[in-house]
Amino acid sequence: MNITAQNIRRSFGAHEILKGVDISSRPGEFVGLIGPNGSGKSTLLKCIYRILKPDAGQIFLDQCDLSRLTVRESARKMGVVAQHNQYNFDFTVKDIVLMGRAPHKKPLDRDNAADYAIVRKSLEKTGMSAFADRSFSTLSGGEQQRVILARALAQQTPCLILDEPTNHLDITHQIQLMKIVKELKLSVIAAIHDLNIAAMFCDRIYGIKGGKIVGEGTPENLLTPEFIREVYGVETEIVHDRHGQMHILFTGL
Ligand code: ADP
Ligand code: MG
Fold first, then answer.
1. What kind of fold does domain 1-77+158-172+184-252 have according to CATH?
2. Residue 114 CA to its chain's centroid (Å)
3. Which of 158, 207, 221, 227 is the most exposed place for a label (fewest CB within 10 A)?
4. 3-state DSSP assignment of residue 202
5. Cβ(51) – ligand 1 distance below 6 Å
6. Residues 62, 222 contacting (CB under 8 angstroms)
7. Domain with CATH 3.40.50.300 in the chain
C-alpha cells in the first residue's frame, strides 16, 4: 500500500512546526525520517496516524483520502508504534496485544481462536511469549516497547508508522525490532534517531529540519558528511564494513 502525505502544514499557536511537508512510502518500502530534536518528526507522524489534524495538506493510503476513513477503517490499514512514554494501563500483556485485533471485529464480536493464535504468534515474533500473563505496567521500557510492536503486528496492517521505536532498547533488541519490521515487507515510515540504524534498515530516508524536508534518498546517497553537517552540525566520516554496509563515524572531537 502507498502512504502519501502531501504539503502537510501544522502550527501550534504562532509557531509553524510543519511547513509544507511531502513524504511517501511505496508498497513494501521501509522509509526512515531523520532530523534533530524538535524538527517536527513526531508532529508529522502524528498527522499521519491521526492524533493531530494537519492545518493543510492531505494524506492518502493508496488513492484513499485518510480523512474520509473512520478511525476503525484506518486502523485496519495502519499500525502505530508511537514514541515510548510511560504507559499507565494495567492490562496483561496478552490483553494489550489482543487489542490489536479490535479494528477487525464488529462491536459485539467475541475474540476467537484465530485471534488468540495471532496474539500468540505476535508475542513469539517479538520474543515476549514468556511475558504473556504479566501486568504490562510492571515491564521495563524496552519490554513495553516490544509489546506495543506485538500489538501492531496483531493488527495485521499493510502500513506501519513507527516513532523512534528503538528508544529504550539495548542493541540486541534494537536490531531485533528493526529486523522484525523489515521482514514484514510493509509500507513503513519510521522516525529513527540513530543514523547507523537508519542506514542499515531503510530503503530510503528523508531528512527534516525546522519543519521542512531538506533531503531524500537512499542511505548511501543521502547520508554524506556534507548533509549530516548541514542537518546536525557534526563532523562525520563514512566507512564501509566487509559486508559493504555503510557506517557513520562521528569525528572531529
Ligand atoms: P521531533 O519529534 O522531531 O523531536 P516534534 O514533532 O515532537 O519534534 O516537535 C516539533 C516542535 O513542535 C517542537 O518545538 C515542539 O516543542 C513543538 N510541539 C510539538 N507538540 C506540541 C504541542 N502539542 N504544543 C506546542 N508545541 C508542540
Ligand atoms: Mg519525536
1. Rossmann fold (3.40.50)
2. 26
3. 221
4. coil
5. no
6. no
7. 1-77+158-172+184-252
Assess contact for 87 and 128: CB atoms under 8 A: no
Q: Is 65 exposed, middle or buried (0-12, 13-18, 19+ CB in 10 A)?
A: exposed
Index of the ligand 1 atom closest to the CA of residue 45: 6
List Cα–Cα distances, 221 to 167, 195, 199, 204, in angstroms. Answer: 26, 13, 10, 9
The finding on whether 28 has its CB within 6 A of some atom of ligand 1 is no
| 196 sits in which H/E element | helix 195-201
Q: Which ligand 1 atom lies nearest to the CA of residue 37?
A: 4
In tens, the pLDDT along 4-33 reads 999 999 999 999 999 999 999 999 999 999
Residue 111 CA to ligand 2 center (angstroms) comes to 34
C-alpha span between 115 and 133 (Å, rounded): 16
- The closest residue, in CA terms, to atom 11 on ligand 1 is 38
CB under 8 Å to 250, separation ≥6 — which residues?
A: 234, 235, 236
Q: How far is the CA of 59 from the centre of ligand 2 (A)?
A: 19
**Segment 201-245, tens digit of pLDDT:** 999 999 999 999 999 999 999 999 999 999 999 999 999 999 999
Q: What is the pLDDT of residue 106?
A: 85
